[in-house]
Amino acid sequence: MEILQNIKEIVTKNSPEKALEKLEPIIEGLRDSDNFNSGCEAPLAAALAEKGKLLWKLGEKASAISCYEASAQTDPDGPGELLLEHSRKIMDFFDPNQLNP
């Protein structure tokens, strides 16, 4: 739970660029540890989902979707699966022919 609170704090109190910098070492540390903690939460999946959200805000949609996919593979019932589904719908909806000239 403490890791998840730390991740949320990093995301809310920093710019997307700075939050990405601070999240990277946490994600690397979580990759080396057990995926699920004692509360049956998957902090790695949550961290990857948050990283994806930050990347999406910065316009890096392909990288964001990759993070969502990694999050969904880590925890299929976690936030990454829903974010992945939503981003795919958004990307499928995009039609450049409907843009105003």
In summary, what is this structure?
Helices cover 71% and strands 0% of the residues. It has 101 residues and is mainly α.
> Whole-number average pLDDT?
86
Overall form: globular
Secondary structure: helix percent: over 70%
Structural class: mainly alpha
Topology:
Layout: H1 2-13, H2 16-31, H3 43-57, H4 61-74, H5 79-93
Helix pairs in contact: 1-2, 1-3, 2-3, 3-4, 4-5
Structural overview:
The protein has 101 residues and is mainly alpha-helical. The protein has 5 helices and no strands. It starts with a helix and ends in an 8-residue tail after the last helix. The model has no long low-confidence stretch (mean pLDDT 86).
Which key phrases capture this entry?
single chain
